[in-house]
Write a structure and sequence with these properties.
alpha+beta, five-stranded antiparallel β-sheet, 5 strands, rod-shaped, 13 helices, single chain
């Protein structure tokens, strides 16, 4: 009788043996299991493709050639804001509740819209390699390519349209914030400086008026002195010479300085009035922008401009100058929104049923199902052949 250790060793060697013939036997014996497993996995792959896969592809190019790439990258953090885009898509009225749920599932993951939106450049690195000289417009940013693949042609096409509106809206939002927030801060700083300059100028003006009054008193005291002598008096400014003009001449000089000071104060006051109009507009616009949702920033600016006459008197020249500045900025924003930031063409949609992108998940699912079924069959046969030996070995 063999020792216990030797019995365990023999049982272990028997439990580890499984030949290619055993593999073929397992395949033939459990062919129904393999067929069912492969079929179930194939069905799962088909369901995935038709319910979650990309049967249709819709694509369009959004023209952003008047936006620098650095500016786009600064604004494009909005692409990763999944909830903000879903809220924007819901307001677009292009999706039903069911379609919106489908969009929500398709936007899963941290990259969100980043998987559908890609920057476009005039010339790529590959183009530069083929050129004799590097063109001046190499790597010039021209826009973004919006490429959406979904199982619904209509949803994919609407996603491209809503995505382009979303990108245009956050670019316009960035432009507006870059205008309003620095504009408000700059206007307030300039206003403080102008008001200080006015106070200093008025103080200097009062001193000039006081000096004029004192000089007039002196001139009246010497009224009997020949006037022509006073006016023709020659004054030497060399060391040791007389350094004072006649009182009449000094009065004339001080009055000229008073006229100049009044002119400076009038100019400063004009600037103050202009800045007050700008500050009133920017303050109201900032308040409205804080409450506005994406896509509502430009209407908020226009509404603030429309209600400006109710808050400020716009009849003065300085106020009209401020209004002209605001109007020019708004017209530029409208031009960006309506003419410059637009789709190059309507989205094109096509089926992908003949593409490997559609069939690859189905083939992969069938292969995974077959391999899992085969693994189960092999494991079952191995256990059936070696169960008694393994149990016996553990019992001893």
């Amino acid at each position: 009788m063999a020792p216990p250790d030797e019995t365990v060793s023999v049982a272990a060697r028997r439990s580890q043996s499984f030949t290619f013939v055993d593999l073929l036997y397992a395949v033939l014996k459990h062919r129904m299991l393999l067929a069912i497993g492969t079929l179930v996995a194939l069905l799962c792959g088909i369901l995935y493709v038709f319910f979650l896969g990309g049967l249709y592809r819709s694509e369009a190019v959004l023209n952003l050639r008047y936006v620098s790439f650095a500016e786009y990258k600064r604004y494009s953090t909005a692409l990763a804001d999944r909830e903000r885009f879903l809220e924007f898509a819901a307001r677009s009225k292009r999706f039903s509740d069911t379609e919106l749920d489908k969009v929500r599932r398709a936007l899963g993951g941290p990259e969100a819209l980043g998987k559908w939106v890609h920057p476009l450049f005039t010339i790529t690195k590959a183009d530069v390699k083929d050129a004799a000289e590097t063109p001046k417009d190499a790597n010039q940013f021209t826009g973004v390519d919006i490429d959406v693949t979904l199982n619904s042609r209509e949803v994919a096409q609407n996603l491209v349209l809503v995505g382009s509106d979303y990108i245009r809206s956050f670019v316009i939002e960035g432009r507006i914030l870059d205008l309003v927030l620095p504009g408000l801060a700059t206007a307030r700083a300039d206003l403080s400086k102008k008001e200080i300059d006015i106070l200093r100028s008025r103080f200097d003006l009062e001193r000039l008026k006081q000096r004029r009054s004192e000089l007039q008193v002196i001139a009246n005291r010497y009224r009997g002195v020949d006037r022509e002598t006073q006016q023709r008096q020659v004054i030497s400014t060399q060391d040791g010479g007389e350094k004072y003009l006649s009182p009449v001449t000094q009065v004339i000089g001080v009055e000229a300085q008073i006229v100049e000071a009044n002119s400076d104060i009038s100019g400063l006051q004009r600037d103050v009035d202009r800045l007050n109009v700008l500050i009133s507009f920017y303050s109201d616009a900032r308040t409205r922008l804080e409450k506005a949702r994406l896509g509502e920033q430009l209407p908020a600016m226009e509404q603030a401009f429309a209600e400006l006459p109710q808050k400020r008197d716009l009849n003065s020249e300085s106020a009209r100058d401020a209004v002209a500045t605001i109007r020019a900025d708004l017209e530029q924003l409208r031009a960006y929104n309506d003419d410059y930031l637009r789709l190059a063409a309507l989205p094109s949609s096509r089926s992908q049923l003949g593409s490997i992108v559609v069939w690859a998940p189905i083939i992969l699912a069938a292969l995974v199902g077959f391999l899992l079924s085969l693994l189960i069959a092999i494991t079952w046969e191995w256990w059936r052949e070696n169960r008694s030996a393994v149990m016996s070995a553990h019992a001893r």
